[in-house]
């Protein structure tokens, strides 16, 4: 089982979020997963330019690391989104990646995959940032197995660290169990259903222009 983590701190794996992510990944490895971390600090993902090419061809024409990340997301069994809280939201690096995923979102292309969220902050609003990342996971068609977040106590240290790390490794194990069991989350299934109808409707409305997404939804509807 392959778990891909996308870490969006500019401090990379040496930061606080990287530290908490380590514990989640250790949990996943305990139950046999193979893990890989993609640190956006060492990759180039430029902001979306709104050219709509992804909707027309399925490919982003910006020449950077996005298409490689996309291929890895499509190939993994489960993924983890990890970001520090930057002004009540994710970092600009993560937001740029989310915007570039617009084509994947229109196709809900990660349907069937499970994901988890890791977040750290200087002082709070952890739940807001976690819930934002979980919403993105759901719009990609994937299902969230849960999230973990915490304010820091110092450099790469957290209050009540033993309890936090225990919960983090449990989340890593649980993500893998969700994948093996194909665990169902009725509330997220309802979200998926409503979003599927919204996205397929949008693509149908734009069918004259967005040929890749039109063909994608047509094939999917036939396969269902
Ligand atoms: C530009 C910037 C914005 C931040 N905004 C917030 C914020 O709104 N709320 C908060 O609690 N912490 C905020 N922080 C603190 C970081 O979330 C915190 O230090 C985090 O653990 C950093 O993780 P990292 O070491 O993985 O980069 C901010 C830090 C930076 C550099």
From TrEMBL:
GO molecular function per UniProt: oxidoreductase activity
Keyword Flavoprotein: yes
NADPH-dependent FMN reductase-like domain location: 1-142
Superkingdom of the source species: Bacteria
InterPro entries: Flavoprotein-like_sf, FMN_Rdtase-like_dom, ISF_SsuE-like
Iron-sulfur as UniProt keyword: no
UniProt keyword terms in alphabetical order: Flavoprotein, FMN
Signal peptide: none
Protein name: NADPH-dependent FMN reductase-like domain-containing protein
Biological source species: Geobacter hydrogenophilus
């Amino acid at each position: 089982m392959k778990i891909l983590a996308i870490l969006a701190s500019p401090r990379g794996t040496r930061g606080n979020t990287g530290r908490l992510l380590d514990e989640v990944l250790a949990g996943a490895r305990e139950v046999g997963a193979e893990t890989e971390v993609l640190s956006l600090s060492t990759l180039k993902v430029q902001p979306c330019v709104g050219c709509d090419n992804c909707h027309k061809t399925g490919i982003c024409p910006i020449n950077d690391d996005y298409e490689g990340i996309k291929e890895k997301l499509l190939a993994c069994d489960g993924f983890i989104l990890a970001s520090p809280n930057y002004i009540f939201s994710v970092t600009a690096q993560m937001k740029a990646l989310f915007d570039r995923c617009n084509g994947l979102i229109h196709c809900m292309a990660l349907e069937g995959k499970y994901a988890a969220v890791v977040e750290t902050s200087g002082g709070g609003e952890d739940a807001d940032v976690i819930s934002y990342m979980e919403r993105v996971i759901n719009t990609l068609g994937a299902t969230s197995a849960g999230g973990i977040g915490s304010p820091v106590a110092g450099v790469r240290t957290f209050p009540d660290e033993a309890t936090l790390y225990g919960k983090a490794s449990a989340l890593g194990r649980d993500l893998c169990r969700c994948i093996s069991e194909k665990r169902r989350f009725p509330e997220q299934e309802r979200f998926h259903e409503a979003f599927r109808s919204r996205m397929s409707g949008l693509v149908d409305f734009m069918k004259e222009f967005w040929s890749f997404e039109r063909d994608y939804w047509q094939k999917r509807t036939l396969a269902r």
